[in-house]
Design brief:
The chain is of the alpha+beta class. It has one domain. The chain is built from 6 helices and 4 strands; from the N terminus they run E-H-E-H-H-E-E-H-H-H. It is globular and about 35 Å long.
Length: 118
C-alpha cells in the first residue's frame, strides 16, 4: 500500500509523522510535492494530489476519507479509528468534515503547485 501525502504542509506532515512512527512495513510513504512519479502512479494531477490524501492499494486509488479508513485499518494503534469512522452515519459526517478541512488546507498550500498547472 502506498500513501500519497503533502510533506510540505505542516499539518499534513505532523499527522503523517505520527503514523510513520508505527513502522508498518506494508506502507510506503510518498511525498507528492513536485513528484511526477506520484502523478503517474495515481493517474492524478498535482492539484488532485494536493487536494486530499490518497492511498493506492493494489491497483486501486482511494482519496479523502476512504483513504484514511484504509490507512487506519493497516495500523494496529489506529484501528479503533477505522472501526469508529467506518460506521455509516459517522463516515458520512467524517467525509463532509474531511472535505471542508482538506479544501481549506488546499487553499493554504496551493502555492506549491507547479506554475504550469495553475
Amino acid at each position: 500500500m502506498k500513501v500519497y501525502f503533502n510533506n510540505s504542509c505542516k499539518i499534513c506532515k505532523a499527522e503523517i509523522d505520527l503514523y510513520k512512527k508505527e513502522k508498518i512495513d506494508e506502507i510506503d510513504w510518498v511525498d507528492i510535492t513536485d513528484n511526477e512519479l506520484a502523478e503517474q502512479e495515481t493517474s492524478k494531477d498535482s492539484k488532485q494530489l494536493l487536494r486530499r490524501l490518497h492511498v493506492k492499494d493494489g491497483e486501486k486509488v482511494f482519496g479523502g476519507a476512504e483513504a484514511f479508513l484504509l490507512l487506519w485499518k493497516k495500523m494496529p494503534k489506529y484501528k479503533f479509528l477505522y472501526k469508529f469512522f467506518k460506521l455509516p452515519i459517522i463516515f458520512n459526517i467524517f467525509k463532509i468534515v474531511y472535505e471542508i478541512v482538506a479544501f481549506l488546507l488546499y487553499l493554504k498550500n496551493k502555492k506549491q503547485l507547479k506554475k504550469s498547472n495553475l
